[in-house]
Amino acid sequence: MFFSETDLIAGIASRAKYPSSIVKGIGDDTAVLKSADPDKYQLFTQDSIVLNQHFFLKDDPQAIGWKAYARNVSDIAAMGGIPSCALVALGLPKSLDEGWVTRLYDGIFSCADTFSCPVVGGDITAVENELFVSVSMIGVVSKQKLCLRNGAKPGNMVCVTGLLGGSIRSKHLNFMPRLREAQWLVNNVHITSMIDLSDGLAKDLFHIGEASSVGFELNKSEIPISSDAVALAAETGKAPIWHALNDGEDFELLFTVADNESDIKSVCTEFQELFGFRCSVVGRVIDQGEGAFIVDEKNRRGQLFPGGFDHFA
Amino acid sequence: MFFSETDLIAGIASRAKYPSSIVKGIGDDTAVLKSADPDKYQLFTQDSIVLNQHFFLKDDPQAIGWKAYARNVSDIAAMGGIPSCALVALGLPKSLDEGWVTRLYDGIFSCADTFSCPVVGGDITAVENELFVSVSMIGVVSKQKLCLRNGAKPGNMVCVTGLLGGSIRSKHLNFMPRLREAQWLVNNVHITSMIDLSDGLAKDLFHIGEASSVGFELNKSEIPISSDAVALAAETGKAPIWHALNDGEDFELLFTVADNESDIKSVCTEFQELFGFRCSVVGRVIDQGEGAFIVDEKNRRGQLFPGGFDHFA
């Protein structure tokens, strides 16, 4: 592509004009809109998946439908919100049979039922080959629980749910959006920023860093590495930690908290007992001028950048 | 395609489960949702356009952007509503240059500004070839002004704005959604059903007919035929009336009114003076059991069906 998506989005954002009814436009997991209810905001998001980019024809169509819908639930969860309803736009090749499409909808309706977020409409368009599923979703959030990307402050702890990396092996198609978990977290810790992990820990951390004008220091030994990251590393020759930092589509929650370290660690213990998987403190927020680092067990610092890190020195 | 879109949508609609917060789900121009404001409903719609289906690469990208956005404005207008904000999801081939994409956004922002409906987010995905633009839009409607497809009653007059047919010659890319006009109409006549003309007069009339369980009798001499329909007929060998009835993408308003014929005809005169183009009474609603007909100047009746009509006999 002759243009970068980041530059393009920055260009688009600079052209957008917002009335006072728009609390947050381009630049977060969802748009945030004023509501007629003075205690709440409305959330509005759209996300598309495309054949050979986000899924393949060999994949189970039910899982493809789940994924398309669940990505949007994950975005709303990461704002501290609850999804309300959604529209599904399909671009369907003429070569598909009806059974395939029915199974795609099985996945969509399964996700809609799981999160009590009904499909209220959409449209179907014929395409030649490049199947796409574009879902738009509305949600709601208490004003006091809204989590944006721009509230991280130096001294905050950095936390992440679950185990990271290697989602291409299967999790990217059947992940569980962290809606219950996000709701519990906004009620039990002081979240200052939150994002769902779609681009990978390193990149998404920089999304928070840019929005909040802060830097980061991650502890290498605390990064929760999935067994899929380990298995994938055996194939790629990269380190498991590389996959945990850089693989996309984990759909876990990455967030910063203003609580002190002992409080957040006990919350993480409670989280594990309640939900049956990890919540980890992986580092802390530092001044933007200090940059972004990852520190290993021997206290060596490697520079962190979106998409990777330098060797420890 | 091995499945029909109509059957597929009927199948999907039958599977959808709605809580009481959903006033209208699948099956109208937009979904209708309860709002925290007791006097209003929220509208929610999504519509996609795809390369070689709805536009071509030779078309002006600014017009493509306008079209993608304006289709959604047209849907909200046809519900009696006003658009609030929208998201834009793009599938962009790597071969496009940045200038092309900037001009696409010029068209999108131009439409957003024209209708005071800002772009509040979206996403960009790389595709191989099949460029798509999928826009989702939120709007608002006064409960008393909501226009669904299901309220037409025998005895109602059938009306349409503008001139019909031949939009493929240019109008499909640069049409003006009838937002101001729809707002004026809901305040000046008793609309019982309304739809925007996207599939063509004959098909869209049947959408109202099915939703309202009614039939129709159209007056052939009253169907407003565009000069594009006449020009296109000269190429295709079909009659201009055929194009006016069956061509898609007019994006005019088709509606039924409970007002008497003389009242609605004086409203049509006022409409013409105010907006500078026609509003026509083209027929009347009859019992579903009577069927759907078109009547010519010699009072001969031809059977009307979605996508055509029989010879007059």
Automatic annotation (TrEMBL), chains A, B:
Substrate binds at H54, E249, F309. Mg(2+) 4 binds at D29, T45, D75. Mg(2+) 1 binds at D47, D123. Mg(2+) 5 binds at D199. Residues 27-141 form the PurM-like N-terminal domain. GO terms for biological process: thiamine biosynthetic process; thiamine diphosphate biosynthetic process. Belongs to the thiamine-monophosphate kinase family. NCBIfam families: thiL (TIGR01379). PANTHER family: THIAMINE-MONOPHOSPHATE KINASE. This is Thiamine-monophosphate kinase. It comes from Candidatus Auribacter fodinae.
